[in-house]
Amino acid sequence: SSQLSSLPLQILFYVNGIYYIFYFLATLAMIVYKSQVFSYPDDFLAPDLVVLFLMAILEVPRLYLGCKGNLTEEEAPLGLSLGVTVGSVVLCVYLLAWQTYVLWADVLLNAVLLCAYGLESGLKVMAIAAFVS
Q1: What are the transmembrane regions (predicted)?
Q2: Domain residues of the chain, as ranges?
Q3: What is the pLDDT of residue 1?
């Protein structure tokens, strides 16, 4: 039987995992920076931190299910990973557009992450299509 799993998708999972660690630490550092330098209302600090930590919690099953689905050539885990990616995209857009203060570094970090999510989602859909056929 032929191998249907996607090597580019697997590489992207690995790169996204490493990038997300950088993204999380940089975004956390920027939130701390903004809370010290700007007049960051306490009511708005907590939601920004909650979104960042919720995103980190979602990232683990998203990458795990994606890797597992790709390597075992099963569409269900890849589909679940795709669904969790939608949630991660919504949280990323919040941090890009709706957090209290948005710096140019926030825009850059979130734009790269959104591009990675988009590329990964396209590869997931192609892998699922290959597994089903």
Answers
A1: 12-33, 45-65, 77-96
A2: 7-132
A3: 61
